[in-house]
Request: fold
Amino acid sequence: MTKKELLGKELSNLYAIAKQVNTYFDGSDISFLNEKVKTILSSYAKFSCASEEQTSQMLRKMEVNPGNTSDSIVNEITENLHDIVKSDHSPTIKNLGYSLSLNRLVAYHRANIENVEYLMANS
Reply:
């Protein structure tokens, strides 16, 4: 495998992460969240939309088709977010649990961006 092929795989994964995040948060119920978490989530969703578009452009330039790539870690975290939303816990506990899972998702997304940046800097 070449560095270019590895970069293509990492970009495909990054694209999948952004696409899954955007799909999940589009129209999701966040009514129970406090304003601080809503603001963070709004900023993250905007960032993720931009990330999806930028990554898509990079993949096109490299002539890489990400196909129906999906990320199992994002699946797990968004399933957890869904379970929190549907739970009968108090709003305080739901807000806290959602915040913790959102933090994991953002950190994972960031780690994947850092991997791509590292590969691009060392290609």
